[in-house]
Amino acid sequence: MRIDIITIFPQMFSTVFTEGIVRIAQEKKLLNIYIHNLRDFTQDKHKKVDAPPYGGGAGMVLRCEPIFKAVESVILDKRSRVVLLSPQGRVLTQKRAKQFLKYQQLILICGRYEGVDERVAEYLADEELSIGDYILSGGEIPAMVLVDVLARLLPGAVGDKQSIEKESFEQSRLDWPHYTRPRVFRRWRVPRVLLSGDHRKIELWRKKKALEKTKENRPDLLKEV
To answer: Most buried among 46, 63, 169, 204, using CB within 10 Å?
Structure first.
């Protein structure tokens, strides 16, 4: 998979993608990431990419011309997907993330300031995507989140396939509690069943605890079953 990120703050990505699973995916040639500075696609001698909104109001709006030029300079073919990262978009879920894997290329547009000229969403982007119901300073952090989610899903990126298949959201429930050494910490003990060696009992306990946690924290997931 190839991911192109269009941003006015390319330096924000300089270290994030050199660590963890994203680094591993790149080293294995499963993922290629390219960062593009939006200011390189403007004719303005001051490299300005924003302007006041028509109709008045606070803040500045990213102009459509440089964004169109940036996307058109990197888009490959019909297997490319252009995504505008925006609070107005559909919320990212594990299920939606998996659907992105069918594309050869993702082009991520990072919004900033008061927003992006609506013509980008209407005539250039294939979809708008949000990572939650809150407001960030821009689309850079959502882009990092999406890349991390996708890197873990690429076949061969994660060594143990089961660690993905049995984690939260994969079976319309949250994950079960995990424990490791020491067996006793400040009088708090690891549940005995996990030390029993009885794999059937352990599996039943894990399913029960996962269901309890889902009912408590994310009951909406159970409605999807």
So the answer is: 63
